[in-house]
TrEMBL record:
Species of origin: Sphingomonas canadensis
One Pfam family per UniProt: Peripla_BP_3
Organism lineage: Bacteria, Pseudomonadati, Pseudomonadota, Alphaproteobacteria, Sphingomonadales
Keyword Protein biosynthesis belongs to the record: no
Keyword set includes Transcription: yes
Keyword list, A-Z: DNA-binding, Transcription, Transcription regulation
Name of the protein this chain belongs to: LacI family DNA-binding transcriptional regulator
Record domain HTH lacI-type: where: 6-60
GO molecular function: DNA binding
Domain of life (superkingdom): Bacteria
Record PROSITE patterns: HTH_LACI_1, HTH_LACI_2
Extent of the signal sequence: none
Length: 334
């Protein structure tokens, strides 16, 4: 029986070349002739040889993993099982594995100002993807001054130091409120917590739209993202509102989905009595009754942009922030 090929040295002996030549051939380096490289690859395939990822990472000083971090400074009860997080993480996992990286996922309650610096200094990953800036923009900026391979999903503000990829939240908020105004709504409720920058920009956009509409008003109801808390806050608002709103702009699809059954339990129909617009266009928004009108964030494209920017930064290249256009998706809730 032929000797088991366990290392590049075994494969080099079999091919009659040096271990360095085998390493270059399997890495696709141009220093090896096409004929020799093809012969080595075929031998490796025939003998079931796969280069050690650990050895490769030691040579390149890479870890082969990307940290995906979800900071929850403003919404500590939120979980990774949140539909938005699950959708984004799934898209990121696809993008990263196709590029040969593992994903190291962390949900962080930022109780210390240096929580992000501690993660960077631990040096466990090749770079960091931050999903949502929460109320931690200052922490992101502080780390971005000295650490290049980091990109955040979320809003962009003039003057920020960290690189971000996200939707134009001001425009999305304005589009949502304008759609309700165009449908005849004049008493519009905004449901969402404006503490994180993304939600604040959506609220600012809604304010701008309503300010330009004669006889229209915007009622701002601070609302959590978690199902239990948001349901209680929405119920309290509906029970005390006089007159009731004829339109609701929810800062997320999840908040909108909580509002619909609460309206129904009070004898109010959607969209007959109250029209509702959400934000995100999560898959569940298409399957509820009535299907939800929402502002679409292209999460798959956003995930691809996040990974592209991060890989360039891992190579030492600077990248600018990316602002994607939102899209109004009209369904039966308006």
């Amino acid at each position: 029986m032929s000797k088991k090929v366990r290392t590049i040295y075994d494969l080099a002996q079999l091919a009659g070349v040096s271990a360095a030549t085998v390493s270059r051939a399997l890495a696709g380096k141009d220093l090896v002739s096409a004929e020799t490289a093809e012969r080595i690859r075929k031998l490796a395939q025939a003998h079931g040889f796969r280069p050690s990822a650990v050895a490769r990472n030691l040579r390149t000083r890479r870890r082969g993993a990307i940290g995906v971090v979800i900071p929850l400074g403003h919404e500590r009860g939120q979980h990774i099982s949140d539909p938005f997080f699950m959708t984004m993480i799934g898209c990121l996992a696809d993008e990263l594995t196709e590029r040969g990286f593992d994903l190291l996922l962390s949900r962080v309650i930022p109780d210390r100002e240096d929580w992000l610096e501690a993660m960077v200094d631990a040096d466990r990953v090749d770079g960091l993807l931050i999903i949502g800036q929460s109320d931690q923009s200052a922490a992101l900026d502080a780390v971005a001054r000295r650490y290049l391979p980091m990109v955040a999903w979320g809003a962009f503000e003039q003057g920020q130091i960290h690189c971000s990829v996200g939707t134009d939240n001001f425009l999305g908020g304005r589009m949502a409120a304008q759609h309700l105004l165009d449908r005849g709504c004049r008493r519009i409720a905004f449901l969402g917590n404006p503490l994180p920058i993304e939600i604040r920009q959506r609220l600012d956009g809604a304010r701008a739209a309503v300010a330009g509409a004669a006889g229209a008003s915007l009622i701002e109801i601070p609302t959590h993202l978690t199902a239990e808390l948001s349901a209680a806050e929405i119920a309290a608002f509906l029970d005390s509102a006089d007159p009731r709103p004829d339109g609701i702009f929810a800062a997320s699809d999840l908040i909108a989905l909580n509002a619909i059954p609460l309206l129904a339990s009070r004898g109010l129909s959607v969209p007959g009595d109250v029209r509702i617009v959400g934000y995100d266009d999560l898959p569940i928004s298409r399957s509820i009754l009535p299907p939800l009108t929402t502002i679409r964030q292209d999460i798959a494209t956003g995930a691809a942009q996040l990974v592209d920017c991060l890989l360039k930064r891992i190579e030492g290249k600077q990248t600018g922030s990316v602002v994607l256009n939102p899209e109004l998706i009209v369904r039966a809730s308006t």
